[in-house]
Amino acid sequence: MTQHLAAPAAPTSGTHTGWWRDAVIYQVYPRSFADGNGDGMGDLEGVRSRLPYLKDLGVDAVWLSPFYASPQADAGYDVADYRAIDPMFGTLLDADALIRDAHELGLRIIVDLVPNHSSDQHEWFKRALREGPGSPLRARYHFRPGKGENGELPPNDWESIFGGPAWTRTEDGEWYLHLFAPEQPDFNWDNPAVADEFRSILRFWLDMGVDGFRVDVAHGLVKAEGLPDLGGTDQVKLLGNDVMPFFDQDGVHEIYRSWRTILDEYPDERIAVAEAWTPTVERTANYVRHDELHQAFNFQYLGTHWDAAELRAVIDSSLAAMRPVDAPATWVLSNHDVTRHATRFANPAGLGTQLRTAGDRELGLRRARAATLLMLALPGSAYIYQGEELGLPDVTDLPDEVRQDPSFFRAAGQDGYRDGCRVPIPWTVEGSSYGFGSGGSWLPQPASWGGLSVEAQTGDPGSTLELYRSALAVRREHPGLGAGTAVEWLESPEGVLAFRRDGFVCTANTTGAVVRIPLPGRTLLANETVMIVDDMAELPADTTVWWAV
To answer: Which of the listed residues 31, 90, 351, 485 has the most CB atoms within 10 Å of its CB?
Structure first.
């Protein structure tokens, strides 16, 4: 039964501020953030109880990964009911209370939307299976007869992102498409009923008071006409390099134009953010044209190693791509699908974004802290993944028997090690699950995490948490930081990035050695101690410094 709740007031007065252009948005993975009822699984009440912490951290908005009713075949990205909360997370009343509390604190709430696929337990799909070939419900998904003498072969050669064929055969002989797990059948967006349903879902959550949506697999909704063969195997390795017949098709943009008209009907600047893996930042820019979505994740930046030349190239291309469409660039280093950057940077370059090795922890943390300061100094909006403000590493040694990533159990797909970045975060030095909740945690936490907890780091001027708090405070107060479209590059030694913004200079030493540069100005913030000698600044290895000029 649908509950109708009055929308809580948004945290602004309705004026057009373009708040998303310089917003710092914090991603909460609800099952791993805070457990309010002691069952070992994070929930909405847990998130609600920790909202003051996020306000104190200094973020502008909170993005919640899915909390919808779901069998949890893929951690909630298999949605059975888009208008209901899964009981493991709470109720619609809990969601309403969370939104209201966030707004009272001046925080905005962004929720995940999953339009590429549903759960196989969605009522539409269950009816499609029951009603058989030719059913109108089957037309809302991609059902096809198979190839071969008796239809025993899949309709085409597409492979699942999680490994194996992208098709599963039903008992009546037809096949259905799922770009991810078999429990996640893809919607057919050529069917008007699908578009109508999602416009209704948008309005449902906007009426609840949410401030925006993060659009999962935003590049995947439209498939090439005729579902043509790709003509090869190991297709996952091609992702992000080529336009695929099932990703980044031009037809997706008509969908987002229709969504934008709905968003613009509501007060207080509601937004949508595209998770769009595309071959180039120029293709990403198509999603944020003036009549489409507001932001798109910058995965090219996320995948760049700690190298000055590579970073400058992707910064330049990102800013240049967004400028013609008047959209803010976004910057992100970690999320729930990739190895935490404190571990990625602890390993040699070229290993990708899902790693299995811990690497050099000290090196990784130093680089991660420096990379964060660089990211927060760039023009545009920044995303922070829960726990990165604590310097958490990936948990690379989880026992196989506790893993839940569906791609871990399938061959030839993603590596399947996403559980390592999803381990519940520590709040206290001691206690059950280090303060995550009174009933343990759904994934085991390392014994060392008490020392990385919020309690352990709060008040310690050298801690990663206090570095984040200071950086976000300076970013909010300094007029030269936040929104913008360009940086002015300054002459610098090899391996050092240096750029100027209004009254501000950022220098980032990506080398493993001390580098001396002329003193740019007054030190605002640095991730390591900087020595000043005779009007020269000595930048330690892997150090970013903010200067007032």
So the answer is: 31
Strand, coil or helix: what is 273?
strand
Angle between helix axes 252-265 and 192-208 (nearest 10 degrees) is: 30
For residue 522, with 0-12 CB atoms within 10 Å meaning exposed, 13-18 middle and 19 or more buried, which class applies? exposed
Q: What are phi and psi of 160, to 5 degrees?
A: -70, 145
How buried is residue 10: exposed, middle or buried, by Cβ count under 10 Å (0-12/13-18/19+)? buried
At 524 the three-state DSSP class reads strand
| Range of weakest confidence among 158-162, 174-178, 517-521 | 158-162
Interstrand relation of 536-539 and 531-533 (parallel, antiparallel or unpaired): antiparallel
Structure pTM?
0.94
Among left, alpha and beta (phi > 0; psi -120 to 50; other), residue 173 is left
Token pair 């037309």 is found at 139
Cα(356)–Cα(416) distance, integer angstroms = 10
Question: Which sequence positions are flagged as catalytic?
Answer: 216, 265
Nearest Cα neighbor of 335 from 299, 368, 367 is 299
User: For the chain, what is the mean pLDDT?
Assistant: 94
* Measured distance CA(416)–CA(160) in Å, rounded: 13
